[in-house]
Amino acid sequence: MRTLTGLQAKKYILDPIHKVISLTQIELDIISTPLFQRLRKITQLGVASLVYPGATHNRFQHCLGTLHVTDKLLYSLELQKEYELSDKDHKRIVQFMRLAALLHDCGHLPFSHTFENLYENFTHEDIGKHVIEKSSIGEILIKHGFNPNDLGLFITGQPPVKDKNFNILTHLLPLLHSEADADRMDYLLRDAYFTGVPYGKIDIDRICNFVTLHEKRICFSEKAQDALEDFLYSRYQMYKIVYIHKTSLCYDLILHKIYENYLKKSKIKFFDSFKLPTKKEFEKKNKEWYETDFYELSEASFYETIQYLLKSKGKSLTDTEKVELKYLYNTIKKRKPIKNCYNHDLLATVPEDIKKKGEICEKENQLFENLQKKSKITNHWSFLRHDPGKPIRISPPINQIIDDDQDSKSIRILKDINGKKEIVLLQKKQNSFIKNLATHHRVLISYYHNDKKAQEEIQKQACEMFGS
Q1: HD/PDEase domain location, by residue (predicted)?
Q2: Residues with Cβ < 8 Å from 181, sequence gap 6 or more?
Q3: DSSP output for 25-91
Q4: Of the four, 229, 355, 382, 412, which is 20 to 30 A from 87 by CA?
Q5: Structural domain ending residue among the three candidates 210, 244, 278
Q6: Residue 196: left if φ>0, alpha if ψ -120 to 50, beta else—which one?
Q7: Which residues of 339-367 are buried (b: 16+ CB within 10 A; e: fewer)?
Q8: What is the mean predicted confidence (pLDDT) over 371-394?
Q9: Do 162 and 281 belong together in one domain?
Q10: Do residues 120 and 235 share a domain?
Q11: How far is 189 from 432, CA to CA, in rounded Å?
Q12: Are residues 96 and 240 in the same domain?
């Protein structure tokens, strides 16, 4: 048994998206660790299953899928021939890339992206780097001849300088960090499949079959352009219909409010209470903490902590706070979302988007300040607000046009003009409709409230500020 790229496979796993995923011995060893198994308890789309009942898939499945897509891309690149590598070096580079794909999401917090914007300049990739370096996963990597720090750097988007294959790995970085990388290809297919939304059914085989290296840069043949455009437009549609669905966003805001207003401030001390570590704590903690405390930080412990608080008789929360927390918890438990009373979804265009976004955020801040003067509105348990100045940390469908052709995240098309090869950015091609779509930037404002008078007041002030 072998992988597409020729590595010795020890086991096959069946997957609803890719059918059969092959695994090597080191990958099996890593998957068998408790810290990787915890990804089974981290839902891919947070609480989106309250909107799309099938969206109960998890980060464990996605990591296996990303590994598989990475292997398909590497198979098409023919690295051994391109770089004249020995069998040993070729296998090592391929295994390194597969490991990076497998571990790229190992640092995700419960509910995936929901709590990530509580940290400034600190992402799940940064947490994953600490997990890799400070746990049994790192020990397995060392046992098989890989440096945990190198893998940790790579998943944060930094090629490992000390690795002897640094130059090659730098060239391969876009396979996991670009607008058309293995991560995005898998989650788009997987999210569309489990939500039942028809927009993510992309031709991944065509994209993977026509990837190539030209002048040491990842490019795609013009034959894959239609498939790539379909992929990008599907991401745009999934973003609009699934990732920022007004009810999904509502539940994300509820989770935030429960954590910030009740769980975080409570003084309870029992073994599985839900408390998110600070950035410094992630940096300072040792193996034992990652294998125990971090492992236990789960979505289940979030709900268990709520239940404990509601039943507790101490001074963790006041009676009023318990009543408010119960109301919020029941919106999830009984699937009764808070009413969306104002939603403003703008697609601003480049180069005006930065200015427009700034103006909109200023107006929204003024609106929020005006509403705060009416304490009965903003102090109510059901008041929720999405701040447009803090974007949701899920990749936008397409970045704005990038003038820097050296940017590794851009999608490059390899054109053949009279026998001469030329690289062109997809969003700059004259015959690509992505050129127009890439000039848009989403700015989202959402307010929620369950009191009818408050809804009317929010709508009135919002419409005066932004229009209906």
Answers
A1: 55-197
A2: 174, 175
A3: HHHHHHHTSHHHHGGGGSBTTTTGGGTSTT---BHHHHHHHHHHHHHHHHHHHTHHHHHT--HHHHH
A4: 412
A5: 244
A6: left
A7: bbbbebebebeeeebeebbeebbebbeeb
A8: 85
A9: no
A10: yes
A11: 23
A12: yes
Tell me, yes or no, whether 112 and 162 share the same domain: yes
- How far is 357 from 364, CA to CA, in rounded Å? 10
Q: Which two tokens stand for residue 324?
A: 């408010």
Q: 307-362: per-residue pLDDT in tens?
A: 988 988 777 788 899 999 999 999 999 999 999 999 887 655 544 455 566 777 88
Domain finish residue from 198, 218, 244: 244
pLDDT at 311: 87
Asked if 270 and 306 touch (Cβ cutoff 8 Å), the reply is: no
Alpha-carbon distance of 105 to 109, in angstroms, equals 9
Distance CA 396, CA 441 (A): 8
**How wide is the angle at C-alpha 398 spanned by C-alphas 394 and 400, nearest 5°?**
115
Of 224, 181, 242, 231, give the one whose Cα is nearest residue 201.
231
In three state form, how does the secondary structure of 145-186 look?
Answer: CCCHHHHHHHHCCCCCCCCCCHHHHHHHHHHCCCCCCHHHHH
Total residues belonging to the chain: 468
Residues 22 and 3: beta-carbon distance below 8 Å: yes
- Residues 96 and 206 occupy one common structural domain: yes
Average pLDDT over the chain, rounded to an integer: 88
| Closest C-alpha to 322, from 314, 275, 332, 255 | 314
Radius of gyration of the chain (CA): 24
Torsion of CA 415, 417, 420, 423, to 10 degrees: -30
Tell me the pTM: 0.92
On whether the CB atoms of residues 277 and 125 are closer than 8 A, the answer is no
